[in-house]
Amino acid sequence: MDNNRRLSFSAVALVAGRLRNSYSALLSVRNKIEPILIKDWFNINPLPPFKWVGLMFQYGIKNSIIPPKYGKIHPKYGDLPLKIELDMSILEWADRHDVKLLEEIFEISALEALIHVGKKYKLDTNNLYDQRLLLGSIPEIREEM
């Protein structure tokens, strides 16, 4: 990655579906979380064994966040790839009816995955955890929304 980003999001649909507001929701979530990572993980000594985190949101048939699927840290670029799966039907409902809920689902799942990373690599997760406590839970079925 040739810029100063420390957190990058991507998304891919594993099942048929369409989210019209996912880009803006993911951008908003990244802009909330990335400053926490920069402060707590990338401005310390010793630095983590990775230079940045690439989190892929897979839109699938279930919510599977913890543990995230880890890839190997790239020796040249230093990225730590992670994958998590979110239920497309829940995301589609939120996309159509409550964009704030869609953003919250992305934020909860990203925080959960990053807290897991922090614990794995013995990094400070206090501020991530505090941010996570401000949020609810991801609905498992549409009736919970």
Q: Can you walk through the features of this model?
A:
- The protein is an alpha/beta fold and 145 residues long.
- The chain has one domain (7-144).
- It has helices at 22-40, 88-97, 99-120, 126-133; strands at residues 7-13, 52-60, 64-70, 79-87.
- Helix 1 (22-40) packs parallel to helix 3.
- The protein is globular, with a radius of gyration of 15 Å.
- The relative contact order is 0.20.
- The mean pLDDT is 94.
Write a compact overview of the structure shown.
The protein has 145 residues and is of the alpha/beta class. It is built from 4 helices and 4 strands, in the order βαβββααα. The chain is 41% helix and 22% strand.
What's the topology here?
Elements: E1 7-13, H1 22-40, E2 52-60, E3 64-70, E4 79-87, H2 88-97, H3 99-120, H4 126-133
Parallel strand pairs: 1-2, 2-4
Antiparallel strand pairs: 3-4
Structural class by sheet pairing and helices = alpha/beta
How would you spell out the order of helices and strands?
EHEEEHHH
The proportion of strand residues reads 15-25%
Low-confidence stretches: none
Count of DSSP H/I helices: 4
Percentage of residues assigned to helices? 40-55%
Q: What's the number of structural domains? A: 1
Strand line-up of the largest beta sheet? 1-2-4-3
Radius of gyration: 15 Å
Shape: globular
Could you describe the largest sheet, including whether it forms a barrel? 4 strands, mixed
Mean pLDDT: 94
How many β-strand stretches? Answer: 4
Q: N-to-C terminal Cα separation, in Å?
A: 37 Å
